[in-house]
Amino acid sequence: MKWQAAAREQAKKHLASELGCPFIGEGLRIAAISECLRAASYLCSVPVEGSGAWEPAASLRLTSIVRKRLSPVWPSLLEDVVDDSSPGVMEVLDSLGRLGDLVRVDGGWLTPQPCAVRATNGRMILVGGGPSPIFPVPTKVCGRARVVSTETCDGLVDACDPEEWIGAPIEGLGVWSSRLLTAAKARFTQPYDLEPVSVYLSGRWLDLASVPSVEGVHLAKCQTGKKISYFIGAFFNGALQRMASIDSTDARRLRFQLDIQAGCSVRVEAEIFSSFVKLRLYRRLPPEQEKTLLLGWELPRPEGDHPGLRIYVIPMEALPIVRHALNGLGIVWVERQGAQGSGT
């Protein structure tokens, strides 16, 4: 057992060196799985004779290859899920699809054309294009993120700005929210039998029965069993008069604008280290902004902390993209300096 443990630690050090990964814990594990998935997808799909159509690689085939290659180093990969905050191979595969590193099509996955997302300080985040060794420029793999130099990448890969890659509404949160409310009011209908109803006021969900004098148009929800339905409602004297349903993702985005208007913007606690930033978030982000957190990785929530808390580690090179996404939601940064030399 001692020999096995020593061999695994040596293997991790070798992987970290090959990937250029400065992390030794979860960051390295995610980096190794991600790069192995990129390589497996590319090698399984590329035409054998160098020409012809690329063939999609099935999820089972890709995940099986990764487990076979990496389970000697991380035996828990055979079970696919380590714990709530440590994704298994299939979950990492899905997240690479959200980032654009791989594309899901009928029959499996394909490798898309590469794109580089501009960050700052002469660095870009590489997305797509296959495994890192096929690129003519050096890359550093940090979790799911691959960092390349702007200078060495210039002219070789198409580049885009963070807002283009994130894909959030280009008009901005305020204008988008106004349009959402206007469209919802144009669809108002008579309410059906909803019980109980909660109204979003001053950054909190309140039972309608507890605010008998509420009036005006507000975001609201109703839970039936395990399903939560969101809607925009018109209220008078504490009673729901008219309503229009909206998607849960729209409700999630709208809440950030309502918080700004109420003067209670969401806060993120950012602990700054030399090579990464640890973020503590208590609110889920809209899908477009949430995918930026996949450039890092999640840490387990300490026992006894708020059940809605999520802790993310973001490599310093990817931080400008994540911060751009959070700023677009009006999230307030609360920074403090972490202990230098800490790793993850």
Write out key terms for the chains shown.
344 residues; alpha+beta; five-stranded mixed sheet; five-stranded antiparallel sheet; elongated
Describe the structure.
The chain has 344 residues and is of the alpha+beta class. Helix content is 32%, strand content 26%. Strand 3 (115-118) and strand 4 form a beta hairpin. The longest helix is centred in the N-terminal third of the chain and has 20 residues, at 26-45. It is elongated.
Shape: elongated
N→C terminal distance: 24 Å
Number of strands: 17
- Helix count from the secondary structure assignment: 10
State the helical fraction.
Answer: 25-40%
Question: How confident overall, as mean pLDDT?
Answer: 91
- Give the neighbour order of strands across the main sheet: 5-6-4-3-7
Instruction: Describe the main β-sheet briefly.
Output: 5 strands, mixed
The helix/strand order is HHHHEEEEEEHEHHEEEEEHEEHEEHE
Radius of gyration: 23 Å
Give the helix/strand class. Answer: alpha+beta
Low-confidence stretches: none
Range of strand content? 25-35%
